[in-house]
Amino acid sequence: MGDSLQWERDGSDWPNREASRFVQAGGLRWHVQVMGAGPSLLLLHGTGSSTHSWRELLPLLARHFHVVAPDAPGHAFSERPAPQCLSMPGMAAALAALLGKLGISPQLAVGHSAGAALLARLCLQGSIHPRCLVSLNGAFLPLPGLPGLVFSPMAKILTQFDLVPRLFARHAAEQPLVSRLLQDTGSTLDPVGVDLYRRLASNSVHVGAALAMMANWELGQLRSELPRLATPLLLVTGDSDRTIPPASSRQVCALLPRAKTVSLPGLGHLAHEEQPRQVAALLIRAARACGAWSDT
User: Scanning 5, 97, 120, 257, which has its CA 20 to 30 A from the CA of 223?
Assistant: First the structure.
C-alpha cells in the first residue's frame, strides 16, 4: 500500500514534537505526546486525524493537567494493525493496553468525533474511570438517512482495493482537495492546519487506516449500550458542524438525560482547532465542575 509516515522525515516539524515519544503496547508501536503535570487528561482525536489536531490546545491544557494524546492505530505515526483490529472493540483493547503501559488513569477524558465514541466504549467496559467524559462533536450514533446507508458499506468495499488509498493520497497531495474537504466540515483552519491535514491525507497508509476504521466502525451496539453509561458526559457541539449534525447531541441526551450540552456558536466540526483557547477554558470549567481539577 505504500510507506508509513516516517518520524525523522515527515515529523521533523511536527507540532509539539518535543512532547512526542514512541511506546510499544498491545502489539503496536504508538506515537504519543505527553505534556504537563497535574491530574491526567486523555485526548483522543477522530477518524483521519492525529495528535496534530491538538497542536494549540495541548500546551494550554498542559498548564493545568498531565496531558496524554496518542495517534490512533494506523493514524499518522502510530503503527497500523490488521484491518479487523480497527473496529471499535479492537481499538478499545489496543488503547486500554497503551494506557496500562503508560500507567495512566485519566481523570478527564476528551474525545473528538469518533474519538469520543471510543472513549465511551472504554468507560462502558471499565477500562477507564474518568470523573467526566467530554465529547467534542462526538460521533456516538449511526449517521442518519442516506449517509448511514452508504458510507460504511462503501468503505467496506473501498478497503478491498489497495489502489483506492493510493489514488486518494495522490490527489490529496494537491492542497485544494484537502481545503475543500475541510471546508465541508464547517470549520475554517489556518494555512498551517490545512497543510498538516494535507500531509496526512497524502499518505496512503494513513488513508487506508482511516477507511478501514470507517468500514469496521459499528455504532449500533454503542447506541444500545449508551443508557448504562455511568460516567458524567458533557456534549460540546459546534453549531456550524456539517459532519456530525448538532441534532445528534439532542438524541444522545434523550438516551442519557443527565448528559449536559454546550453549543459553540459559529464553529464547525474542528471547533477545538478553530478556537483552542475557548475550548481550553471550557474544559477547565468542566474539570472544576466534576472535581477533576482544582486551582486551590
Answer: 97
- For residue 247 the three cell numbers come to 441534532
How many other C-beta atoms can be found within 10 angstroms of the C-beta atom of residue 253? 15
Q: Supply the pLDDT for residue 158.
A: 45
Q: Is 280 contained in some domain?
A: yes
Cell triple for residue 62?
498542559
Please say if the pLDDT value at position 40 is more than 70: yes
Report the distance separating Cα 55 and Cα 131, nearest Å: 24
Edge to edge, what strands does the sheet with 66-70 contain?
20-25, 28-35, 66-70, 40-44, 108-112, 132-136, 233-238, 260-264
Position 117: which residue type?
A
Residue 214 lies in a domain: no
Count of domains in the chain?
1
Question: Per the domain annotation, does 242 fall within a domain?
Answer: yes
Q: What is the mean pLDDT of residues 114-142?
A: 96
Residue 69 lies in a domain: yes
CATH number, residue 58: 3.40.50.1820
Q: Residue 291: is it exposed, middle or buried by C-beta count within 10 angstroms (0-12/13-18/19+)?
A: exposed
Chain centre to alpha carbon of residue 41: 14
The DSSP bridge pattern shows strands 132-136 and 108-112 to be: parallel
- The alpha carbon of residue 151 and the mean position of all alpha carbons in its chain are separated, in whole angstroms, by 19
Q: Do the bridges between strand 108-112 and strand 233-238 make them parallel or antiparallel, or are there none, so unpaired?
A: unpaired
Burial 180-197 (b: 16+ CB within 10 A, else e): eebeebbbbbeeebbebb
**Residues 233 and 108 sit within 8 Å (Cβ to Cβ):** no
Amino acid at 243: T
Give residue 82's pLDDT band: very low, low, confident or very high (50, 70, 90). confident
Residue 147 has pLDDT above 50, yes or no: no
What range does the domain containing 261 cover? 7-143+219-290
Q: Per the structure block, which three cell numbers stand in for 162?
A: 489497495
